[in-house]
Design a protein that fits this description.
Elements lengths: L4 E7 L4 E7 L4 E5 L6 H9 L6 E6 L2 E5 L11 E4 L11 H11 L4 H14 L15 H14 L4 E5 L7 H14 L5 E4 L3 H7 L2 E6 L2 E7 H6 L4 H8 L2
Parallel strand pairs: 3-8, 3-9, 6-7, 7-8
Antiparallel strand pairs: 1-2, 1-4, 4-5, 9-10
Helix pairs in contact: 2-3, 2-4, 3-4, 4-5
Length: about 240
């Protein structure tokens, strides 16, 4: 199971100042208008952007602060974005096995883990296909399996359903909801359906600052800004 996450992030070049605290296994949704700093926040957590101030702790380990920057490859943080970004020269199963092996599993164990994940995301039997032979929804399922096969301590989801059609997005939400159990996760989305399907708690980020946070349905029931009110009304 992923551990507790305590993160305070200040990225001055994008004017993002946010404090996030998650319990083990919690799923937190972050919503905000375009340009609010959501992707910059994820970049700071994943290590793609250095912190100007603040810190990132996972399980009591200091991952980053203004003086220390742990490279993304050493953070044990998974990231799934709008595009699957699978390795095109590898099969679906090999993509997952690569992640498992990178996480410390042996080669044989990685193959077994890949087969298990192919089944868990509903694609058993398609392990020999290359990314170019998969649909968009299938590719995102493989990308999710690859991210989770590495057993990250924190998983970041950045609009993972936005490139899919309505039916594929709805199906993938169900897969993600079933597979995230026990994994501490932050999901960024413009869609309240994503937050409602996946998250325990909700943060509104506006102009680089958190304007409201708390249990998801409590926040949606009492929106504190015009943007939050518009999101709540779209349910």
């Amino acid at each position: 199971m992923s551990g507790a996450v305590d993160a305070h992030v200040v990225v001055t070049h994008a004017a993002v100042d946010a404090r996030l605290t998650l319990a083990a296994g919690e799923v937190l949704a972050v919503m905000g208008p375009s340009g609010a700093g959501k992707t910059t926040l994820l970049d700071a957590l994943s290590g793609l952007t250095r912190l100007d101030d603040g810190y990132l702790d996972i399980d009591g380990d200091r991952i980053a602060d203004a003086r220390q920057h742990t490279p993304p490859s050493r953070r044990s943080i998974g990231l799934l974005g709008q595009e699957a970004l699978l390795f095109p020269h590898m099969t679906a199963a090999e993509n997952i096995a690569f992640a498992a092996q990178s996480g410390g599993a042996s080669r044989d164990a990685s193959r077994a883990i890949a087969a298990e994940w192919m089944e868990r995301v509903g694609l058993a039997g398609l392990g020999g296909r290359r990314p170019g032979e998969l649909s968009g929804g299938q590719s995102q399922r493989i990308a999710l399996a690859r991210a989770l096969a590495a057993r990250p301590r924190l998983l970041l989801l950045d609009e993972p359903f936005s490139s899919l059609d309505v039916q594929a997005a709805a199906q993938l939400r169900e897969v993600v909801r079933d597979q995230l159990q026990g994994t501490t996760t932050i999901v960024v989305s413009h869609t309240v359906a994503d937050a409602a399907a996946l998250a325990d708690s909700l943060v509104f980020l506006e102009h680089g600052r958190i304007t409201q946070q708390g249990p998801l349905y409590e926040v949606l029931a009492s929106p504190a800004s015009d943007f939050a009110a518009a999101v709540a009304a779209s349910r």
